[in-house]
Amino acid sequence: MSSATPPEPRGLISWQTAASIAVANMVGTGVFTSLGFQLVDLRTGFALLALWVVGGLFALCGALTYGELGAALPRSGGELNFLGRIYHPSLGFLAGWISFIMGFTLPVALAAMAFGSYFQQVLSTDYATEISCAAVILVTAAHLFDLRIGAWFQNIFTAFKVGLIAVFIAVTVGVTVGRGHLQTVDFSPSHEAWGEIFSAPFAVSLLYVMFAYAGWNASTYIIDEIDDPARAVPKSLIVATLVVTVLYTGLNWAFLVSAPAEEMSGQVEVGHVAAAHVFGPAAGRWMSALLCIALISTISAMTWAGPRVIQVLGQDFAFFRTLSHTTERGIPALAILVQSAMVIVLLIKSNFQSLLVYTQFVLALSSALTVLGVFVLRRRAPDLARPYRTWGYPWTPAIFLLISLMTVIFTLLQHPLESLGGLFTVLLGLPIYLLSPKIGPDPPSATR
Fold this sequence. Notes:
73% of the residues lie in helices and 0% in strands.
């Protein structure tokens, strides 16, 4: 493939808004729910915090690598764009199929489920599903109106969420230490802790952590709407991942020192448990209300990014052509409505934990194949213009692939039904690809 000149600056949103979308995609369901599942098998504070550090390293290595791909192959669609151009259009289609069926739809459903669970703590109601559906409808309406309104909506809620976490860490730990109620959690690198780190439960727990960090690649799904994507996309990915790694590690430390592990083990609403233990039941309800507002940002970010992938899928393949249509304001309204409708069906029919494992196993495979593409692209297209090159290459993508492989293997062994179910869902896309004529812009393949 010959060298190409980077595209002219375009789009309507800055790198800061792109970073805000990535932060909002990451900070949401996972960090407010994962610790409860991890505490079932892991008990040492050192191993539990190591999970979040390793997850941050994993996400950063992925962000550094995706930054190069986004700068070299600038087009919305994320893995759909990258895999289709690096390997074969069929892999690009399957990546888009994954995004259409589970990549965004399921995480939005998970975030909405968490929203409903936390809202239950506020109103002491049994209508969690109805509340979750209402949140999805509210966010959908906001994103159907105008792109700039959507950007404003996203930035406000993301800033609130980041500020909330920072304040929660400071106030919770300050009050706990001041009262002398600090939980006696062992954060030392003991023999037991290292044993947990090299155990199967640690590898499986990384699946929850990877879900919590999922979204570090969000900017690559909306490249067509970002000004100067060659520079803005890598910057947004790296800044967002570093910010979130610090927040996640600090937040889980605050959870562990403020509430007994026994009370949080197996619980989805660990934020409510921690806040109620420190400040009392009334304050716990207030914290749940604030977390509900924070989760709106997560639902919003994925409601923005997901339909853009569906839109690109419709631009390239006849079967989904109708979903590529946009309004006069450039909004893929039908794609947004279809994704939200699928989310509401999942909210009514599914449960949290099985949905999470089913989703992350397949997404881990998709992102690993994309990161591997950096090696392929450098070999096959050495003259391709690369405004940004992966820092630490080849070690950073290699670390990402190693962690992905370890997590995928252990997850398959521990949760075979959910993992194989995810693979079966992917394979269902093959007949559709074979029957769907290729249409629209056919970006030049990096393998040619």
